[in-house]
Here is the input.
Amino acid sequence: MTMVFARPLGLVSALMMRSALMRRIGVAMALVAAALVLASSVVGSLSLANSQAAERDLGEFEFGAQLPVALTPGSAIPRVDMTATASAVLVSSGDLRVTEQPQTRAAFIETNWQANPLPLRYQLVSGRWPRSAGEVATSAPVGASVHVLGDVAVQVVGEVVDRYDRHGFTIAAAPGTWSSWHVADLSTRFPNTLATATYLWIGDRDAGLDALALVAAKHGMSAASARGQMSGLLLERDQYLATDKATAAKRFPLVLGLPVAIVPLLAGVICGGLAARWSRRVAKQLQQIGVPDRLTVSARMLATLAATSAGVLTGCVVAAGAGLAVRPALDAAANQPLAPFAIGWGDMILVLAGSLVGTSIGMLSSGLVKVAKAVRFGARPRRVAAGIAALSLVSQFPGPDDGIAMTVTYSLFAMTVALLSPDVLTLLIESTKRRGMATQLGAAMLNPRQGFVAALLAPLTLVISLSGGAIAITAGSLAAANAQLTASIPPGFAVLRTLDASKPVPSSIRSRFEEVTGLSNPIVSWGAGIEDLPRGFDGEPRLFSSLADIERWLGHPLTTQQATALESGALGLFAPAEGKVAISPVEGRWVDLEPVQIDAPKEWAANYGGILLEPAVSRLRLKKVNEEIIYSSVSADQQISVADAAARLGIEPGYIVFNKLPVPYSLPDSFRWALAALCVVAAGLMVILVTGQARAMRPQLGALKAIGVPQSWIAQVLGFQVALVCLTSGVLAGGVVVGGNLILWAATPDALVPRPDPLSLVVVAAVTVVGALAGMGSGLMTLRSSERSVF
Here is the structure.
């Protein structure tokens, strides 16, 4: 009996597979799968594999440890006697400045380049490797020689590339170069320019650490302390390779994690609903030729699952090919090598499983009961689910405190609104029944299909909400972080500061600085040297010699009350304070000071804890530390001279502070690719839904056309229905973006801005418009078609 049933089942399924709808389902699922798998593949390609991280840090060696000894220029590199199969030493400094390019930080690396311990990281582009002390190869053409540490000349003999920092500036030096740099007044001009030595070896782990600890003991550290410090930071090849690389979905849960898990399920629900509605019309014709309903239902299920599987598998193959095709472009733009190409089997299986489950749910929920019953049957559990999501949302408060919690909170809010979206559509249908003939007819034609539309509207609203929300939350977090960035000092100021807290700015540096910049008549201030500060202080208070200096520093005069308070020994604060402020000028001794609020430029307020008038608090015996020589009324031309002064004077850049904003935070390229893929998926689902809705109306619209109703009037009916579905999902998704952003901002005001990024709403609007236009186009093309075939 089973064999007898199996053959007709195969024939009917094959017949259904030839239909245009099944082809569209296959294409739709292929697009969804391709977008998600490609996004995951691209994001994964932009993060290093564990083997590459080991290659970058260890080359072919097994272990690597940094000797906890700071090396000043001219210092001898400690020699370590290792009983190892192979070993190498790397001398590195991450903040060396080239005099010819004063604003560029150079990464200095010194080793025996003839043996090149990191051959896959550092590669020679032209010229030769440096061999003798004083020879270097640079990562950008800079001429036959360059100067470092002010006036120390080095000979450039080649061009090198650091494959793991392609956009940086690298100086690869021959052995002995760092030790050969004997700089006059080194401790004054470059007190903080230091290097470290990293030792790589193959052999016994503990023997290598013991040898390094003995060397550290000769430089003032205890061997046990040095060994413990190096053990905690030891680089081990086995640990690199044993750690699993975080998947793209785990790195970006809102943009890739949730979509990879949810979007195929929702797309399957949509396609399953379309197939179920189509098969009910087909079943009448099949029944007339003797095909039983049971066979039709089974054939429909088999055909739809086959079309879904074929589409997903095709999409995965396309994604793999596209992932290979875009790698050259990604590699050209990336700052480091791409990870080896790998097929994301886990993502593919998740997409396929979600698609098949969603398709089954869509067919079972739409095909086994009548539409009117489906509306009544589905409303109660759907509203219960919305209530559960809302209660879960409330449980997230008093506030999500990390990115994962924010993702969960936003997703719960989006899910609550999406589950209630069919109720909103019902209210809209009822409210538009009496507004014009076309509108009335459109509402009347749409009303019997509320169950069908309801099954598709909720997942569609959720996907659009996720795409807009991913942009809103990410951009809002970046905006909040960037809003907190401030320059070190206000515009119109320049600061010459000491690099040794206990010593003043060297007089030779001050005089030369004023000579090259033309600045004079500075304000001198000191840190108060307070041992303990109250909680909430952003920095130590500054000591000033006079009220006039304080007023110049603030940029405005003090009020009589403020001046009197400071002269009486009060602590000037940049924010309101309740009661006296307790400070500890000496450990174990606390003093209460009266506070007085003073308005200060935001840059000073962000970096200093307050101000004190030094003569008024002399009784406290405060230690003067961290001297700063502050120049006011600095012109634009003088600002340029200040910015170049470190290179011209041959001193460490840390001596000089000028008004310059920190580099703002930005999205990584991999995140942008993931966002783009999510938007494509959202638009694709909107197109699938609206196209299916338009085609489902073909019999009614065709009947209107047959009785002579004008094409323009039919287009109005179609336009109303398409607009109602699209606007419901689009407006609700926009509300989720705005409301979700406000909820997260209210819970974590420092982590987000209250207004969502306009791009998030643009994406929601664009997806809605694309879906509406696609639906209108599909419906009008259907009306023009003379095809009357059942399939």
